[in-house]
Amino acid sequence: MTLIPEYRFDTFDEASADFLVSIGVKGIILDIDNTLEPYENALPGERVISWLASLKERGISASFVSNNGRDRVMLFNGKLKLPAYYKAGKPFTKNIRRAMVRMGTSRDDTILMGDQIFTDVLAAHLEGIRAVLVPPIKDKRDPITRFKRILERPILEKYERKSKNASRL
Ligand SMILES: [Mg+2]
After folding, report:
1. Is 164 a domain residue?
2. How many angstroms separate the alpha carbon of residue 169 from the centre of ligand 1?
3. Own/partner pairs, 156-164, CB within 8 angstroms, 24+ separation
4. What pTM was estimated for this model as a whole?
5. Regarding predicted confidence, which is higher, 26 or 148?
6. Centroid of ligand 1 to alpha carbon of 163 (angstroms)
């Protein structure tokens, strides 16, 4: 079990439909807060909507698994109507399995995208699926978040070393 994500992008939509298809993804489980939109945006923006449409076009299913509450998730998902799980309790994996069942995907062809190593990446790897990490869109500056970022640093450095080695092959 590792905390190092399989993939990293600067924004969610850099993980294009083409890319996801190329790595054998048929379903993507999405964190919402700071992955797709910052906390204060109640609704998905144009970029989120068009990216999700491009995934759908290529036959990739999507679902939301968020640790945030019911109102946040239901409002965000109001028009998208994707399978959505709130108060998901990541890194616990119960709702990740539920999302896979709803999407009809398996561990091999499902990926989880999120902005936090100790909830999103850990949850994915505890369930045995791949993880794609994006930096938080708008990082909170409270002491706990700052402390978590410090803990994440060595893991991100490991990712950088690993991907450098991989590109040398
Ligand atoms: Mg998040």
Report:
1. no
2. 33
3. 156/8, 156/117, 158/4, 159/4, 159/5, 159/8, 159/133, 162/4, 163/8
4. 0.93
5. 26
6. 23
